[in-house]
Amino acid sequence: MSTSLNEPNLPGFDQLGFPDIMPDEILYSWCARFHHLSMRLDARVTSKLLFGIASAGLHHDIPCNLKTFENNTKGYLGTAENLLLRNTQFGFYSKFLTDESRLKIAQSFMHRDNATARSKLGLNPNELITSKILKVCPECSQDQYKARRFTWWQIGHQLPTSFICHEHHCALKLLIVPHTRGYARNLYSPTSRLDSLDLSQYFDAQYQWQQLEKISDWGNAMWRSDTLQLQNGILRWCCLYQLQKRGWVGVGGKVMMHELRNAFVRHYDGLLNIVGEKYFRDLTDVNSSFYTQMVRKVSGRQHPVKHVFLINFLFDNFEDFLETYNDVTNDLLQGGEALCSAILNRKNSMIARIKISAGQPVEEVASLLGMTALAVSKCADKDNATTKTLPRIIGTGKEAIIIEKSRQGLDYKDIAIAAEVSVSYVYQYLAKRPTLKIEWRKSYDYRQLQLHREQFLTVLKNHPGASLNTIRHIPENGFDWLFRNDREWLRNTLPAIWRVKF
Ligand SMILES: [Zn+2]
User: Fold this and answer.
1) N or C: which end of the chain has fewer CB within 10 A?
2) CA 156 to centroid of ligand 1, rounded, Å
3) What is the pLDDT of residue 16?
4) 379-385 contacts, C-beta under 8 A, 24 or more apart
């Protein structure tokens, strides 16, 4: 709790500084702590003071009117944009949006236009059972209390896919938040008296427990990834590629919908009821439109939870998914939907033609398609006279640079710039060379670690005595990355900060 006189205050709160927000705390949780510290007034009054609107702070998933919040708190908790991304569920939902709609929806949460943005994200309070609950891990709460003498709602637990704590592997408690007119009736903390939703039927059976843990891990991995963007097109192709690998795509690229649906229902059994009986109907109903939407290009968007259930059903693990994701990203860059569609339909000559005109070496395309180099060249010649003028990369100095920079663990983009080749070429090159890719991954992870540690230590050195909250608002401070990926180091290196300031 900060009490310095120099810190900003709201009118009427002159004796009270703002508490720091915890790096993994939802904004609603901070509001609840602030509310309780400031003499327990009516929650709507607190929300009005902070957000300018009595209901804005009572949306526990994503509060709105965040610009006013930033102004009223004089930016003490950071910018409205950063709060939206890091301390609300928007960070999760935004992974599934196109750049354009991400910006548009983020913008509307900055201001009053809340209902439209919420319905676009599928945050209709009547849609999901889990949209009216807050989740808590008893063990995390104990740790929080030991360290700080108070508890808070953690963002990682509130994702619509979170059922099991990522850190402690125990079932999250689902607490029912009383709602009025679409938002919480009060600012509740994890210690408030709330009824819990009984999910013991799902946690009793070992199989369902495993599935729920997997669903929780998928959601977590997607939310944590800095680079993953799962907007409709990419996700659709990822699923189609995998359907093909699993044998659900027949002759002519036709998806075996009926078999797929049956296998999906068998896989989850009664577990689909966990988010609401009617919710998964379009995945389980015989006349389902969901799969049709996955297979054909349509404008309608599905709720991320449905995608996560489908992805968990189709892929064994996140690594496998990432491989396919990289393949799809690369194919879309190389030849757009036409190439993806040719791959799905196993039209080898078309694949060869598109890949070669995008600059991929004949030898690679040949080994990818199991064809001879001669046959591949013939395909390419039919269509593209410029192929021959494309520079060769394999066996040249450019290849040497790609190998050297990969071993150093540079970003794909930086490798591409150094070797003067396209980013998609680097993707493809490493995808086909697993040993080099493992070397790259090791060096890349190491570089990221060093980079963020250095950033954090430099900021500490340049701002002696600054509070952790101040540090987190300095650009390139490294803290959030380290908090997510290198918490042990933070804990060991800076025990004083950990105890006192965090
Ligand atoms: Zn936990």
Assistant:
1) N
2) 10
3) 57
4) 379/348, 379/349, 379/350, 379/352, 379/353, 380/352, 380/353, 380/356, 382/349, 382/353, 383/353, 383/357, 384/353, 384/356, 384/357
